[in-house]
Backbone:
């Protein structure tokens, strides 16, 4: 881990990766292998540690020693590297997003608090040697076993992990050093960096002046519009939203929930009638129900960061489909919806989109400037 300063003077945590030089040891083609890929070799290992097959494979491409690491990467249709060609960090560009795969640091046998972030037991009030214990692990008589996937103490770390959407912050072509976003990895482990999974392209939107005249395309902010759409996250959030709108069945009140006092209907003895404990008992008119139906909750909780990612994905989806337009200013003196709609119509801005010819694009979004004097 290290840190650098960006153009604005802010500190950016980064990880320095030695990403080359890598030699092209083999090229897979669709005619011969059924798919297109390139095999890259990095580093070198001692001759007494390499097998004859590895030495023969390296000798074919003109290498004196067998590579320490061999990995295949898929190729696009336009790329066609040659065997023996050297690949350096010059293939990357500043601002591109990459995914980095490496091996996490091994941490040995750990408990549930460090391994999974459990809260642990109480520190006082009768707690005895259970401060870091996992607690109950069974499910009672039914099913009388520990459920599969139960999080328990065990070996932690030393496993393959991939981090996506890391931005290339700096490139040192002379030493083949690649500086990317913050990433924790173990020392002396192999890290594989593939080319950008999504180029960090600047998205633009249509721009209209206050009078409704079209202007130059407006560059959308990179913090919100990065051009990446996570469809699975969108599906999860929309599904949770629809589930939260769903109502359960009818609900009935128990004797503890209905209104009324707790007095007895009559005295305990001497009336010739059966004893009655409360006028809220089920047998009385207006009393509670013993085993009545209770509403089922269909609510699904979604983490705040997941909702924010879905919101950003929705904006990127609209931006890629050219369904976002920016208007310079709305001169409104009060937050009135009717006046807002009239102003939009006057600037060729329909309720669902913006177009100088009057054509309304279904599902479009209008991004307007903040009106002066009040907050929306």
Residues:
């Amino acid at each position: 881990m290290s840190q650098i300063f960006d153009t604005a003077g802010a500190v950016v945590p980064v990880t320095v990766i030695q990403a080359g030089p890598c030699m092209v040891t083999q090229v897979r083609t669709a005619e011969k292998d059924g798919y297109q890929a390139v095999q890259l070799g990095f580093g070198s290992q001692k001759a007494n540690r390499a097998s004859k097959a590895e030495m023969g494979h390296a000798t074919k491409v003109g290498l004196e020693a067998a590579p320490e690491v061999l990995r295949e990467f898929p190729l696009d249709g336009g790329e066609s590297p040659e065997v023996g060609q050297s690949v350096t960090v010059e293939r990357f560009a500043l601002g591109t997003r990459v995914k980095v795969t490496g091996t996490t640091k091994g941490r040995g046998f750990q408990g549930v608090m460090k391994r999974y972030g459990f809260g642990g037991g109480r520190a006082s009030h009768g707690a005895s040697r259970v401060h870091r214990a996992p607690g109950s692990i069974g499910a009672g008589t039914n099913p009388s076993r520990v459920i599969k996937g139960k999080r328990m103490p065990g070996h932690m770390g030393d496993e393959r992990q991939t981090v996506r959407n890391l931005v290339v912050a700096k490139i040192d072509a002379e030493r083949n050093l690649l500086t990317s976003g913050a990433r924790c990895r173990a020392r002396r482990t192999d890290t594989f960096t593939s080319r950008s999974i999504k180029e960090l392209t600047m998205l633009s939107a249509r721009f209209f002046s206050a009078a409704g005249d079209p202007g130059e395309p407006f560059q959308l902010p990179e913090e919100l519009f990065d051009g990446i759409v996570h469809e699975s996250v969108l599906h999860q959030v929309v599904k949770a939203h629809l589930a939260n709108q769903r109502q359960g069945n009818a609900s009935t009140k128990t004797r503890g929930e209905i209104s009324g006092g707790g007095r007895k209907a009559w005295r305990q003895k001497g009336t010739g009638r059966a004893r009655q404990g409360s006028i809220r008992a089920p047998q009385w008119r207006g009393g509670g129900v013993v085993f009545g139906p209770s509403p089922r909750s269909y609510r699904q909780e979604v983490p705040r960061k997941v909702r924010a990612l879905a919101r950003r994905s929705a904006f990127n989806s609209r931006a890629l489909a050219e369904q976002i337009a920016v208007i310079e200013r709305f001169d409104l003196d009060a937050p009135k919806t009717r006046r807002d709609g009239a102003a939009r119509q006057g600037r060729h801005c329909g309720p669902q989109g913006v177009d100088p010819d009057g054509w309304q694009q279904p599902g479009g979004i209008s991004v307007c400037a903040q009106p002066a004097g009040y907050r929306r």
About this structure: Confidence is low (pLDDT under 50) at residues 196-200, 348-376. The two ends are 42 Å apart (CA to CA). The CA atoms of residues 163 and 185 lie 11 Å apart.
